[in-house]
Amino acid sequence: MYETKYHSNSLSNYSFLVTGGAGFIGSNIVEYLLKYGAKKVRVFDNLATGRMLNLEAFQSNLAFEFMEGDLRDLNACRKACEGIDFVSHQAALGSVPRSINEPWNTNDVNVGGFVNMITAAKDAGVKKFVYASSSSVFGDEKSLPKVEEKIGKQLSPYAVSKYTNELYADVFHKVYGLSVIGLRYFNIFGPKQDPNGQYAAVIPLFVSKIMKREEVFIDGDGEQTRDFTFVENAVQANVRAMLCENKDAFGQVFNIAVGENFSVNQLYNKIGALLNSDHKATYRSTRAGDVRDSLADILKAKNLLDYDPQFNFDEGLALTVAYFRAQNTE
């Protein structure tokens, strides 16, 4: 991966902190930064959902550093930010269903932990603080495509936590002058995404279950749509945001997606075709807190961040299925 460079200036003079760097998106960001010669890439992760397996390939790289710690510990966050130029804040407790089952836990990590990390970054004088938000922030706003400035009421504790991050980021930019950029992810998928566990994301879950010919569940009628976004597009957005010099982008939030949507049924059928499988899914009741349709307007990110997604849904899905097939045969 990462045959395309998303930066022009050298990374060799800069130190990067990737919180949640042992996780799916974080470890892909780490891979890019190390490939292109960053002076230091420090991962801060408590391994609650991240996996050391995702970092295995980097252990021998002298620029790589792993720091185990928890967002809920302000002193640990301060230590993680020492000597850092750019922060890519990916650490969070994901999953709408998890947040409905454990709202207090989601709030502690995603809100309290966010405030700790952005405070530590401000006090350490970092050049840029880039953080992951979520399309779930749009809530019950029905208009498509989704534009950043038009949101509705959030439908889950997870969505509330991510919107709260955006509000805090705005305040830290206005009050403290921190250069901060938020990235509203739309259904990111790809290699290193964990197919296991109670709250596994839909694409690795579908691939894993179909390959094993285990029962696969689709929530609702499967006609709900999503702007499925390959992880390398999210990596590009983070790199461009961290190195962005356009001051009009600071204090802003951007949709990070492709700008096309597909139904869950279409997704399932495409995965089946890639796996040469006729394995049937079982339909069950609609999941609480889920948005019905999602499609992003990405013009703002294109204009202010020079974001230009390189992988569409079909290309990303083919690469993802190939990755999981290879994992399954090792």
CATH fold field value of the domain at 15-188 and 228-259 and 297-310: Rossmann fold
Rg from Cα: 19 Å
Largest sheet: 7 strands, parallel
CATH top level class name of the domain at 15-188 and 228-259 and 297-310: Alpha Beta
Rounded to the nearest angstrom, the distance between the terminal CA atoms is: 19 Å
Helix content range of the residues, please? Answer: 25-40%
Shape: globular
Secondary structure tally: strands: 13
Extract low-pLDDT stretches. none
Q: What is the CATH superfamily classification of the domain at 15-188 and 228-259 and 297-310?
A: NAD(P)-binding Rossmann-like Domain
How would you describe the overall organization of this protein?
This protein is an alpha/beta fold. It has a domain at 15-188 and 228-259 and 297-310: Rossmann fold, CATH 3.40.50. It has helices at residues 24-35, 74-81, 96-101, 103-124, 157-176, 202-212, 231-242, 264-274, 299-305, 313-329, and strands spanning 15-19, 40-45, 64-68, 86-89, 128-134, 180-185, 188-189, 217-219, 225-226, 229-230, 252-256, 262-263, 282-284. The strands form four sheets. Strands 3-2-1-4-5-6-11 form a seven-stranded parallel sheet, sandwiched between helices. The chain has a two-stranded parallel ribbon with strand order 7-10. Strand 1, helix 1 and strand 2 form a beta-alpha-beta unit. Helix 1 crosses helix 7. The chain is globular. The two termini are 19 Å apart. The model has no long low-confidence stretch (mean pLDDT 93).
